[in-house]
Amino acid sequence: MDTIFDPTRQTAPGGAAPAGGDLIKDGDQKTFMKDVVEASREVPVLVDFWATWCGPCKTLTPTLEKVVKAAQGRVRLVKIDIDKNKQLVQQLAQMGLPLQSVPTVVGFVQGQIADLFQGALPEGEVKKFIENLLKMGGGTLPGADLLAEAKQAAEQGDHRTALELYAALAQSEPENAEAFAGLARALMNLGEEEQAQQVIDGVEPKIKDHAEIASVRSALQLAIEGRKAQEKLGEFEKRLAADADDHAARIDLAVALNAMGDRAKAVDALMEAIRRDKAWNDEAARKQLLKFFEAWGFDDPATLAGRRKLSTLLFR
Fold first, then answer.
1. How many of the other CB atoms lie within 10 Å of CB of 98?
2. Is 120 a catalytic residue?
């Protein structure tokens, strides 16, 4: 029997690995070295082992094709019918690949088996699998590049550019929670809160409870509450001057301060309320602080600083 796959080989027979080739193709035991092993030295290659009698294969293969096409050439897919390529399946099984059941998807990077999964995974999981393969090869999916560019634009205050980038990513990846959250935040920063709310309300059910979506949802609610609180800022300050234990006024003051962009003072106001009476109104001050953290994002500097203060106060 000829050796179909040798992980120690460094070059294709007759020269270097091919530079081009289709992104998605049907493979067999004759072309396995060229289409899979050697091709994976350029970009990661997925091998979809399937069979005509396999029900889950009919679900998984279209998903694989969709994600591979969206990767725009950064990964390839080779589909192999196990019933037509029994010699190849036998050789790979001898190497330890579990091909007794299908679908089985094996990822190759730099001529080596890098990872595999079995069964019909949902699109999001397939995408994560491919992202991990790309990381092994030092690459990323196009969406990851677009997301990084959008985040950079937002950090630099260029919310119009961020809006366009997030919108493009959301359109191409309807289950990308970061894209929709970023799109909504860009709209908020441009004064389009109603549109931002429509974006959040219209996300796919699979991502509606994602932390990024929940964060924007809280931010939108706080924006509305904050505008109302700002109108009564003087009233809250007078009430606190008259009674330092007016915890309701202090919490409302914190909401107003947050709407004014003074996150540090908003945190300090709630910390003072917690220090004076942590249990007041079912720990309302602490819960309001956690709502701030969610709205700001768990990696935001104000959130990190606030969590440190809260931890120091609660566990001293």
1. 12
2. no
**Same domain, residue pair 118 and 34:** yes
Rounded alpha-carbon distances, angstroms, from residue 110 to 7, 131, 133, 161? 9, 15, 10, 36
Residues 302, 307, 266, 182: is their CA dihedral positive or negative?
Answer: positive
pTM, to two decimals = 0.64
Q: Total structural domains in the chain?
A: 3
What would the two tokens of residue 307 be? 């969590």
**CA triplet 222, 224, 226: central angle to 5 degrees?**
65
Catalytic residue (choose from 33, 37, 47, 54): 54
The pLDDT tens digits for 285-295 are 999 999 999 99
Active site residue 54: yes
Indicate which residue of 57, 219, 222, 295 is catalytic: 57
Where in the sequence is the domain holding 195, given as residue range(s)? 143-208
33 backbone dihedrals φ, ψ, rounded to 5°? -60, -45
Do 202 and 301 fall into the same domain? no
pLDDT tens digit sequence for 237-269:
999 999 999 999 999 999 999 999 999 999 999
How far from chain centre, in Å, is Cα 241? 46
User: Residues 221, 224, 230, 232: is their CA dihedral positive or negative?
Assistant: negative
